[in-house]
Every structure is written in C-alpha cells, then in structure tokens.
C-alpha cells in the first residue's frame, strides 16, 4: 500500500514545524496540524477511500497533543502492520535559539506551565527523545534561515518524487481595468506603438496575425522581449530554490486587447525552462474596445 506519500513533521516547539508544513502544503501535500496520533490510521484510510484521491499527506504531530501524544508509537505500529510507509522529519534547535524565538514571539511554551521557558524546553526534549531516535531526517534550525529550511526540505523530500512543474502564469491586462492583484511581476508595454490607432486593426485583438505582426515588427518590441525572456529565465531557478511553486507575470497595456495580448503570447512561445509549465490568461481581451 505504497500509494500515499506520508510525512510526519515533528520536533521541538519553536524549531520551525509551521514553516515546514507550509512548504509541504505549497507542493501539493494535504496538511493537518496537531492531529491526535490515535486518529492517524483512521485518517489515512479516509484519505485512501476519498472520491478525490489524496496521495500526499503531511501531519504535524508534537507535544501539544498532551496525553494524546503517548499514542503516537502505537499508531505508527498500526500503520506499519497495514503496509503504510511513512517518513519522520524532526526539527530541533539549541536552547538559546528556542528561548530567543519564544521571547520574540511572546508566546508561552506548551510545557512551561509556570512560565519558565527553559524548563519547558528541557521537559520537551526528554519527552521527544524516543521519537527523535527513530526519525528519518533531523534538521537543526539554530543557524538556518527560513529560506534555507525551505530549500533543505525541498531537496530532501520534494525533489525525490515526480514533482509538479513550476507554473508560470502570464496574464495580459489593461491598466484601465486595474493591475492583477495576484501578480508577482508587472510590465508596462504602453511604450509600444498602439494598433488601436490603425483603423483596420482596431477591431482585432493581439491574438490575430495582423495585430501580432504590427506589434512585433518594431525594434523596441524585439529588444524588450529578448531582455524580458533573459531576465525571467535567470530568475526562475531562484524562485524555485526559495520554495515558490508558481509565478504570475502581468503584461499590461491600456485596454488589454492588443499590445499586451500579442506580447504575452510571444513570451509564452519563447519561454522554455526545464520543469516549468506556462499558461496564458488574457484577462481583458473581451472587454469594451477602447485604446489598448
């Protein structure tokens, strides 16, 4: 029954488990935080039997479960007997770093009942020691930045499987309709000659050959396109390294029907990057015909 990728995220409070869960979630894992360990076998079976198949799961299991936490090894044994494989990621950090993080966040340690963080950390280390011994991966985040932790998780877990390709969404739009709120990068192509002022081109859109030819015949169009493609190809590996799963690029002209549409199509046609999938969204192409 190896049809489910199953990762247990655990470790010391303040070591980065929430960030780790977000990394898995961004890469298509169904994530649950603080699930009582006794419910793990039942939860796995529900995922297997769901209509929309869930085959990648990450669960955060830690000391917050209180008395429920003691059932973890019993549940893991039950999973093994049922033929389910799993991996355990254990995150930890030095006492000094954990104390500093708790003071900065002003949160109380789950085992610091009298408010002494250092005593809570000591107690947690003792309670988590057996789980640490059986962990598949142990990451010390004492000197690790969030970006470095993301990268290490991606290298150890995500890149080992058939990863979904990085998604590049190119959105053409009209500034008169507003900039796409979710765009990561926005480029203004209103500096290019406007087909709107050519009577025979005005009724067409940037998807029509006549408009494409007009927009792309100018030297500045070619130079802009070459420089933009070069920059995007340079940036993508760094976005992937930082844990991003998609990039939304806005290409805007006045109305979103002519120049931005032609440029967006041309960018998509030329953009070739390994492990990336490019899709196009002409957001305003069907809006009222005005200057574009």
From TrEMBL:
Source domain of life: Bacteria
Binding site for ATP: 11-18
GO terms assigned for molecular function: ATP binding; GTP binding
UniProt KW Nucleotide-binding keyword: yes
Positions of the RapZ C-terminal domain: 167-286
Binding site for GTP: 62-65
HAMAP family xrefs: RapZ_like
Protein name as it appears in the record: GTPase
Designated gene of the protein: yvcJ
